[in-house]
Write a structure and sequence with these properties.
This is Asp-tRNA(Asn)/Glu-tRNA(Gln) amidotransferase subunit GatB. With about 475 residues, the chain is of the alpha+beta class. It has helices spanning about 55-65, 165-180, 220-240, 285-295, 300-310, 315-320, 325-340, 340-360, 370-380, 385-400, 405-410, 420-430, 435-440, 445-460, 465-475, and strands spanning about 5-15, 70, 75, 80, 90-95, 100-110, 115-125, 130-135, 140-145, 150-155, 195-205, 215, 250-255, 260-265, 275, 280-285. The chain has three domains: about 5-290, no CATH class; about 300-410, no CATH class; about 420-475, Arc Repressor Mutant, subunit A.
């Protein structure tokens, strides 16, 4: 009988914080920008330059720690992690080893297997490194220090996850929580949220952990899922053939569907950590913690409950509307303007979700304003345009955030409600379709549907179907 194996997974998640400036200097943290333009002597590691801690970094770290049910080290400090790498300008990284700001927390996740708590070992603050760019043509590597000194928090979990499904549930919960706090946009594709996966396998029923490997270079949930499956199978194959798993750092290549050894795994002593002599310890008072606690926003679970009670929205809809902070904000702000929660919910859940999917966009990328969605809903409620026209107009609102009232006016899309103008067109349609008229008079009710369709076509969709039906019946029943 073949052996049964269990996967044991812990994550190190790096999150770039949404501060305007870097952790130890006043350079911009904006994504993009020409190489080496968001730099100064501090973040390029010039001799004699001194770091000054950005207070907002501490506040974001505290907010995330409190939301993740962590204990706070009210006396914490920064350490130097020494290693040489070309994108690391000082030849050390300022991080926290001995007294990280947050420790011993946990968040609850839910999968098909049920609910469980993933424990959080610690959350610490640190600076990001620069970025190496490999130039194929010139056969050289260039360094861009724009990212050097961008503030990060590293969230280190305990090895509590047992499957790719649990890992994704944990990352999605973490991402949503951090986005709701406004601490980061957590865009994996821009590198503002990055996960390193520590994975080992062991025989089911054994207590001791197997030898773990760490996988880097994972910038999408899909890549993370593939990497976990691939590494699990690689380790099981090694053990089955009597070989040892080597503790090392590996790089996952999603296009090739395989991982490659990068370097043997270092331990803390290899980095020769010591307290940073240029930075004073951070002392966090009870009052400061309380102030951050009082500022914590309403989180997803609370919003879901409130939407059902306050707006009468079904649980399923409330779940989708709160699945991204941008979507929840859009729902609340539009509802405040037009007072039609059910209609706002329908526009967001049906048309907005459809267009996001078509454009390969995230809810966080929504560009249109609540004002313009509220105006569009107002136009349909007033009967100025029908639903078909409204959907066409919404495509322009979604894409370019145009003013729907202005657009409807300029393009002449208002519904023709004037019965006199409609009657003339309908009489022409009836005269041109004697067969349909005969079918209707012979008892085929469906024939009227064809005549309604022809009228709507002639009116370019700008007639009220109810009025068209009424006039048609009057003419046909004569």
């Amino acid at each position: 009988m073949s052996k049964q194996y269990e996967t044991v997974i812990g994550l190190e998640v790096h999150v770039e914080l949404a501060t305007k400036t870097k952790i130890f200097c006043s350079c911009s943290t904006a994504f993009g920008g020409a190489p080496n333009t968001h730099t100064c002597p501090v973040c390029t590691g010039m001799p004699g330059s001194l770091p000054v801690l950005n207070k907002q970094v501490v506040e974001y770290a505290l907010a995330v720690g409190l939301a993740a049910n962590c204990q706070i080290h009210q006396y914490c400090k920064f350490d130097r992690k020494n290693y040489f790498y070309p994108d690391n300008p000082q030849n050390y990284q300022i991080s926290q080893l001995y007294l990280p700001i947050c420790h011993d927390g946990g968040i609850e996740i839910e999968t098909a297997e049920g609910k469980k708590t993933v424990r959080i070992h610690e959350i610490h603050m640190e600076e990001d490194a620069g970025k190496l760019i490999h130039d194929e043509w010139e056969d050289c590597s260039l360094v861009d220090y724009n990212r050097s000194g961008v503030p990060l928090i590293e969230i280190v979990s305990e090895p509590d996850m047992r499957s790719a499904e649990e890992v994704i549930a944990y990352l999605e919960k973490l991402r949503m929580m951090i986005q709701y706090l406004g601490a980061s946009d957590c865009k994996l594709q821009e590198g503002s949220m990055r996960a390193d996966v520590n994975l080992s396998v062991r025989e089911v029923g054994t207590e001791a952990f197997g030898t773990r490997t760490e996988m880097k270079n994972l910038n999408s949930f899909r890549a993370i899922t593939h990497a976990i499956e691939g590494e699990k199978n690689r380790q099981i194959d090694l053990l089955e053939s009597g070989e040892q798993v080597v503790q090392e750092t590996r790089r996952w290549d999603d296009t090739k569907g395989a991982s490659y050894a990068m370097r043997s795994k270092e331990d803390a002593q290899d980095y020769r950590y010591f307290p940073d002599p240029d930075l004073t310890p951070v002392v966090i008072s009870d009052e400061w913690i309380q102030e951050i606690r009082d500022r914590q926003p309403e989180m997803r679970e609370e919003k879901q409950e409130r939407y059902q009670k306050e707006y009468g929205i079904p649980a399923y809809d409330a779940g989708i509307l709160t699945s991204a902070k941008r979507m929840a904000d859009m729902f609340e702000e539009t509802t405040a303007l037009c007072k039609s929660p059910k209609k706002v919910s329908n526009w967001l859940m049906v048309e907005t979700m459809r267009l996001l999917k078509e454009h390969g966009m995230d809810a966080e990328d929504i560009r249109f304003s609540p004002e313009n969605l509220a105006k569009l809903i107002g136009l349909t409620e007033a009967g100025t345009i029908n639903n078909t026209v409204a959907k066409e107009v919404f495509e322009f609102v979604f894409d370019k955030d145009i003013d729907p009232e202005q657009y409807v006016e300029e393009k002449g899309l208002k519904m023709v409600g004037d019965e006199g103008a409609l009657r003339g067109t309908i009489e022409e349609i009836v005269a041109a379709n004697p067969q349909s008229v005969a079918d209707y008079k012979g008892g085929k009710q469906k024939a009227i549907g064809f005549l309604v369709g022809q009228t709507m076509k002639a009116m370019k969709g700008k007639a009220d179907p109810g009025v068209v039906n009424k006039i048609l019946k009057e003419i046909l029943d004569k």
